[in-house]
Fold this sequence. Notes:
The chain is α+β, with helices and mostly antiparallel strands. The chain contains 6 helices and 12 strands. Strands 1, 3, 4, 7 and 8 form a 5-stranded mixed sheet that branches. The protein has a 3-stranded antiparallel sheet with strand order 9-2-12, covered by helices on one side. It is globular, with a radius of gyration of 18 Å.
Amino acid sequence: MPCIAVLPNLSYTLQMNVDDLVRTLPAAPSDYSWAWSMELSPSKPLNVRVIAALTAVAYEPPNEDEIILWFGAPSAGSWSDLLVGLSTDEAARASKFRLEADRWSYAAAHAALRSLLGSMLACAPLLLRFVVDSNGKPLLNFDGLDPAIQFSVSHARGCVAIALARRRVGVDVEQRRELKSLMAIARSAFATEAYETLADFSEAARRNALFYRYWTLGEAFIKATGKGFAQDPKTFCFNSQGRPTLTRVSADWGPVSRWRFDCAA
């Protein structure tokens, strides 16, 4: 059925609960890498709006030339305190994570998503309904809602991120750590050019930073296309420094100028 207009007490309670339990950040912490991808030419104007707090005020939906970002980190309380902001299915999925830190990340990301979308769509957050497409991409059930808003969610231990836009959009956040199997992962997950560029770096810190640049950009991109891991990661490649751009992409998702990116590695 169409979404019922915001019920003030329910909406306010959920948003204040999320604010109490999740600390909103201006960006991911310095020991995390993040990236976003959006179907918009780099030559077009773009406004990047970062949400400063999950308050009870109404947020405007994204404009055509805008991406909205939100970053969060743990605050007071436990992951179970966030269950009030989740559907029954979401609560069940959160509980399946073995570690509490992972349960918190999942619960925080999805409670915050409901809070933001509920505010933008004038809908009580818990009344929002989601569906999953054939590639596993979550989408809003648009019955009675604005069908143009698209979203992407990423959760890592200690940090979560959300991106919203009126175009294909994807976001990824990862905590950087030393990986003994870094080059083996790169060989299977990156384009040949990216793997060879990584192999040219002898300094471990620089190689690690570039690995996470490639990884987060790739994750954000396949989320934006909606294909997920069904998309062959070797069919696209990014530059290794400066403002991120595609250097190669398959005909299905080209040309390279079709997409816009940003990252911090």
